[in-house]
Design goal:
This protein is of the alpha+beta class. The chain contains 17 helices and 23 strands. It has a domain of about 350 residues: FAD/NAD(P)-binding domain (3-Layer(bba) Sandwich). The structure holds flavin-adenine dinucleotide.
């Protein structure tokens, strides 16, 4: 079956990413994106992972494009504060280049054990942690490269491929502008229903006050309205609320002086946690909590006390962790919130959208969606990915923090999962061991090690060798030299803005 007419419903991040990715893979498809300006977009989702930067880059959208148009800053990882019962913190950073990272380099397990024994904690000899502490970007300016570069960042040497923080509203508006420029048709209308044939395949979209829009394939990016897999197909829902009880988020902004570190902060609170994401002109923040323990007013009061300022939150987001069993059902693919949502911790939602779009395009699913094999090629990895994300996120809450009923009850009500026990057993003595695909697909071993050691669930402490100590000293010296050569984060952002 050759599909020529694609209709996307929804103009948030998911909808416009879908439009651009499908257009890139199928330049001859006629793509129409229908979204209602009146309904608007959610406007949340400002933290990402490096794969999203790469996904955008493959679509011809560079880091400097996002910096210039979407108030972006760099993200080298997530700093977890107050999760372990004291005021301590640990970092989950993205992997820098091999010569600068203790975990991604080719050294053996004994050396890593030495690193930890000598330096007490993985973060003490962590290149990204040093950059974050010094508010630096992982880029060294090398003027001689500039003649060969398409974007300002390509005129620099990059030591760690970054993720981005951005203003979600500005990102959706910018992606829309790029997509329309590339020939994608945009219709501002409310979708009323879908017309389907006897096999329940969609052949037209009914919009309010207009003629039907005929289609061969539907991409549902309608956010929490969940028009496709939810309302039309009544697809089975796989709930994760048996392990992830947080169900409400209260967003708010706080000001900053522009001199921000390239990191998301995740601050554990009495009944959940607060994200603190630096974009160019503000921190976007939000308290994510379990509504059986607190409510919007109390959560905001607790956040006000923590930040020492009065806060305003015009919104409250309600959600329940879970996903549709399948993401491709007949000729309907769902993405973004219309497909799944776990919770904001670890910023996985846009990452899942990009991941599913890639597997959809690699499987040539636009033309072969009616094949059982294609459906499996898209749905199976999606299921594994989502389960892996849920397992990984759940691990973060199994901590020694016990100051409120939320933290006291968490470990008994939502105990350590069997899969997580496997990860602990595997990585306990060998931090470079391989995890099974079900665990590895969402987050690589390095990420598991960072969280497990940050939470004190695995401790590496073995006798060191002279050779390993020499290696560590050289690694640290190299890290310090490179950090010194890197541009300041603010300087880097300003350079991209003005280039
Ligand atoms: C509190 C919170 C924090 C989050 N933080 C992160 C994060 O840090 N990182 C991350 O990756 N993800 C995060 N997410 C998820 C993120 O918001 C989504 O992945 C995505 O970026 C935005 O969602 P969307 O495009 O699926 O939906 P939306 O932005 O809600 O867009 C839905 C679109 O559908 C349209 N629509 C709906 N109904 C109709 C209709 N009947 N007719 C016509 N149009 C219609 C709307 O107008 C809109 O254009 C967060 C989500 C929440 C709730």
């Amino acid at each position: 079956m050759r599909t020529t007419n694609v209709t996307i419903v929804g103009g948030g991040t998911a909808g416009w990413l879908a439009a651009l990715r499908i257009h890139h893979a199928y330049p001859h498809a006629k793509i129409t994106l229908i979204a209602s300006e009146e309904i608007g977009i959610l406007g949340a989702g400002e933290g990402t992972v490096p794969l999203v930067t790469k996904f955008l880059g493959d679509l011809g959208i560079s880091i400097s494009d996002v910096v210039k148009n979407c108030s972006a800053t760099l993200k080298l990882g997530i700093l977890f504060k107050n999760w372990c019962g004291g005021a301590g913190e640990y970092l989950h950073n993205f992997a820098p280049s091999e010569t600068l990272d203790e975990l991604s380099s080719g050294v053996n397990a004994e050396t890593i054990e030495c690193v930890v024994t000598k330096y007490k904690h993985l973060d003490d000899i962590n290149f990204s942690a040093k950059l974050i502490k010094n508010k630096k970007a992982p880029y060294t300016f090398i003027d001689t490269l500039s003649f060969a570069s398409n974007t300002p960042e390509q005129s620099m040497s990059c030591h760690s491929f970054p993720a981005l923080h951005f203003d979600a509203n500005k990102l959706a508006a910018y992606l829309k502008q790029v997509a329309i420029h590339r020939g994608i048709r945009n219709v501002d209308a409310k979708v009323v229903s879908f017309r389907t044939n006897a096999a329940k395949e969609v052949y037209a979209v009914e919009i309010e006050g207009g003629p039907d829009i005929s289609t061969d394939f539907l991409v549902d990016c309608s956010g929490f309205a969940r028009l496709g897999l939810g309302k039309l197909h009544n697809e089975e829902w796989v709930s994760y609320s048996d392990k992830l009880p947080v169900d409400t988020a209260v967003p708010f902004f706080i000001p900053h002086n522009n001199d921000v570190a390239p990191v998301t902060e995740a601050i554990a609170m009495k009944y959940g946690w607060v994200w603190k994401i630096p974009v160019r002109d503000r921190y976007g923040c939000g308290y994510v909590f379990d509504s059986t323990h607190t409510n919007k007013e109390e959560a905001l009061a607790e956040a006000e006390n923590y930040f020492g300022m009065s806060l305003v939150s015009p919104k409250e987001f309600k959600f329940s962790a879970g996903r549709y069993k399948n993401t491709l059902v007949k000729n309907c693919l769902a993405l973004g919130l219309a497909q799944s949502f776990i919770e904001p911790l670890e910023a996985t939602s846009i990452y899942v959208t990009c991941n599913v779009l890639d597997s959809f395009c690699y499987a040539n699913a636009l033309n072969t969606w009616d094949s059982k094999f294609t459906q499996e090629d898209v749905n199976e990895p999606y299921g594994i990915l989502m389960n892996g994300v849920a397992t990984f996120v759940h691990l973060h809450y199994i901590t020694n923090r016990k100051d409120t009923a939320f933290w006291q009850e968490f470990s008994s009500k939502y105990p350590l999962l069997e899969e997580t026990e496997t990860a602990i057993t595997t990585l306990k003595n060998h931090p470079k061991a391989e995890l099974p695909l079900e665990l590895h697909m969402a987050f690589a071993e390095q990420s598991w090690v960072k969280i497990l050691s940050g939470l004190g669930r695995v401790e590496y402490g073995f006798p060191t060798t002279k050779e390993a100590e020499t290696y560590c000293a050289a690694l640290e010296k190299n890290q310090n030299n490179v950090v010194r050569s890197c541009m300041g984060h603010q300087e880097f952002i300003e350079y991209l803005e003005t280039s």
